[in-house]
Amino acid sequence: PDLEEEEAVTPVFTNYYKPSIEKYVNSDVHADLASYKKVFTYDIIAYVTKDAETTTITDTLVPALKFRSAAGEITVLDIGTTEPDHTAEGTVAAHAGAVIADAAVSLDEETRTLTVVIEDSAAYRGHWVQVTFDACIDEEVIDIDDYTTYEEAAEAITDNGLVISERYPGHEGIPNTAEYTIIGTNENQYRSTSNTVTVTPPELGKMQIIKTLQDFVADEDPTFVFEVNVWYNPDDPEDWENGDLVYSNVHTMACSTYGTKTVTIDRLPVGAHAIVEEVYSGARYEAVSSVTATTDILAADVIANVTFTNRGNRSEERRVGKECRSRWS
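^ thats the sequence. predicted structure below, dont judge the formating
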């Protein structure tokens, strides 16, 4: 009798193998980000009980994250009565569905909380609903430009209590969960919390552009220009061509004498592939090495490098010498 009374007062819709609310990031429970500025997609999939009157779904981001979707860009879909199709362990297939037009969506930027309310849930009883929005790392909390090493950035994340490791071994990162509440008939209430999903920023390394001048023949300091593009595919670093362009910039190097000079580029993802092209070396110097070089960022404590070697353009030197002698004559 006591058990029956307890169940009548606090009915709870739970199922360990088929949770009433599920959370995914980039269609999985974990995502390795190509960069600290990479945008990722969260999906919340929740079951509407068969006596639901009002359904409320909330998602509060930890301080290291922020919403990239505005309230009007967040989608709420009715994806039907069929249980979500898991294409592989820990992943969920993309779902198509009908937009729930009467779902009220609000964002509280101060508390970093998304709230979705389906006031009249009777039409969706026994259905699954899906909420989709984009998020990213909040650069005001973790600004990668403030850190020169992965260890410094990771320490900043850890100091905010944002790294987890116990629940999903090997999936350390910035966590997120979603919750929902359903008000049913006879004042029944159902509450549930989703699984935890995580995103992990990349480990960071460095590379150097090494320029060697074999001689110095110009009457002015030469400037060399390099175009640098870095690609990274966190799922398969060797398949960098199908990854993200995580760094693209032009670097210049002025030389005042012969010898070797370097430019260091830091905060590059470990596992990334860099392509560097010397696009300008002036009229008085010619390349001894190839004008294009590649390297891989192999580890945080190993500086990758590309080398370029130039010498004075002898034909240009002879032409300048003739002009000088002609002026002297």
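The chain has three helices and 22 strands.
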